[in-house]
Design goal:
By secondary structure, the chain is of the alpha/beta class. The protein folds into 2 domains: 136 residues, 3-Layer(aba) Sandwich (Rossmann fold), CATH 3.40.50.1820; 53 residues. Strand 2, helix 1 and strand 3 form a beta-alpha-beta unit. It starts with 7 loop residues before the first strand and ends in an 11-residue tail after the last strand.
Length: 221
């Protein structure tokens, strides 16, 4: 798993609109590529990126490391008239979007976005709860269990410890988020990606969310 994964750009024949495809936690580049190809076959330029499912720092702004994605988008959104379509897969894709918009406001990704497709997201994880911890633990299982299975004894145990550490950090962060918001030191938008988008002043005109009954993290309910 790369901590600073690459962004892949495929140039299309149609000019003016770029499609950003943001992958889910644990997805390989090959997994996401088949969805990016749907858009590239229609002639759109695509930017494919899957962030490492590791929190960069605190709050909405530091949810994911997205520097390479920002550089790729900056290279294709060269005209002021350039527009965006964004396809987010699950909460990893959603956190990628909110991190991108808050870390690189000069790109104006939501202002340039004409359509936002939220695939199996979003979910609100603001506030500490056992359900939120369980959901995060399930994501970590999905990301690391394959790596543990294929690793040697030492690496496998290191992955197991790291997986538990990430869930513990997530729980601590939820506790601190609740404290900072209730004490008035922070806003809900600063700590919750869900509320960051919900209350954003420049949302695109078309937003579509699709959920699956089989999704154990982002429930259709």
């Amino acid at each position: 798993m790369e901590l600073q994964p690459k962004a892949f750009v495929t140039h299309g024949k149609l000019h003016g609109t770029v499609v950003a495809v943001l992958g889910w936690a644990g997805a390989t580049d090959r997994n996401v590529a088949k969805y990016a190809e749907i858009y590239s076959k229609k002639g759109y330029t695509t930017v494919q990126f899957t962030a490492a499912p590791i929190v960069k720092g605190w709050g909405t702004k530091e949810g994911r490391e997205v520097k390479n994605l920002a550089m790729a988008l900056d290279s294709v959104l060269i005209n002021r008239s350039s527009r965006l379509i964004i396809h987010c897969f699950s909460m990893n894709g959603f956190l990628t979007l909110t991190s991108l918009d808050s870390q690189f406001p000069e790109l104006k990704v939501l202002e340039k976005c004409d359509g936002l497709f939220l695939d199996s997201c979003p979910a609100s994880f603001s506030g500490f709860s056992l359900d939120n911890l369980k959901s995060h633990s399930l994501v970590m299982d999905h990301v690391y269990d394959g790596m543990i299975k294929n690793a040697n004894f030492v690496s496998a145990n290191a992955f197991k410890v790291y997986k538990k550490l990430q869930t513990s950090k997530f729980g601590y962060r939820l506790l601190m988020d609740t404290f900072w918001v209730k004490s008035g030191f922070s806003t809900i938008e600063a700590v919750s990606p869900y509320h960051y988008i919900l209350n954003h002043p420049n949302l695109p005109p078309v937003i579509t969310s699709v959920f699956s009954n089989a999704d154990i993290v982002c429930s259709a309910e």
